[in-house]
């Protein structure tokens, strides 16, 4: 009895440590970890304090440790409804996106897509100054969902074609391994870059991305983080960028059965790095705007109701 109690505690500790060590994260989590790590480095003091207050204690104050939480729970029965919140299906080969046309799940529930989720969870956090939820929202979940979905919407194939489920049904070879195109963009490009250029060290890759894109904050970053009309979030802009990039880079030369090797890898890697940087910078700007003390955040306008009604009638 005593022995099994000790070993259960030991296992729990090992699991927590595995979860918190970036190098030990299972494949598939690196992108989200990198995005949240980049965002954490750009948070204001006020936003940092609010984020820490909302995180569960086992996260050790690190938002990046829980950035894949939304993926971990999505197949659990209680959370199955969140599945469609990770992506947007757009019409095949249209290469464009419209909220009213595309932001729904497969049973036509409106607003159930990654852009709708970003509007929703940022509005929940903004509506709760002082982090006291007056509306029954779970603000910890809102923070974790917002942080994850800001990452998803920047992955070009999370705003892909409905007919191939964002590349999920396009079977390709990544060098010698059989996989699908969506997985290549979620995981394999990052995995190969880690091995080839960073000695499998994720923190080295994150630092390289920071140096390349974020060292001079006056440069690219300011054009990335400003939404039109001074809004707190602009997921429709990010989604339109993503589907454009999916057409120009992800789908191009990646037909079913294709073998994707060095040429595809090396020409797409800079784009993957840039999307990780943009997602991190935009997540930080959003959290800074929501949590900066003494300044009411700009309104979160979503096109949801009036605009979509007009669209349906027109
Ligand atoms: Zn996701």
Task: Give the bound compounds.
Answer: zinc ion
Helix count from the secondary structure assignment? 13
Order of strands in the sheet with most strands = 2-1-3
The shape, in one word, is globular
Question: C-alpha Rg, in Å?
Answer: 20 Å
**Low-pLDDT sequence parts:** 1-27
Spell out the helices and strands N to C: HHHHHHHEEHHHHEHH
The structure class reads mainly alpha
Number of structural units classed as domains: 1
The assigned CATH architecture is Orthogonal Bundle
Major sheet details? 3 strands, mixed
Fourth-level CATH superfamily: P1 Nuclease
Summarize the amount of helix as a percent range.
Answer: 40-55%
- Beta-strand proportion: under 5%
Family: Belongs to the nuclease type I family.
EC number: 3.1.30.1
Organism: Spirodela intermedia (Intermediate duckweed)
Catalytic activity: Endonucleolytic cleavage to 5'-phosphomononucleotide and 5'-phosphooligonucleotide end-products
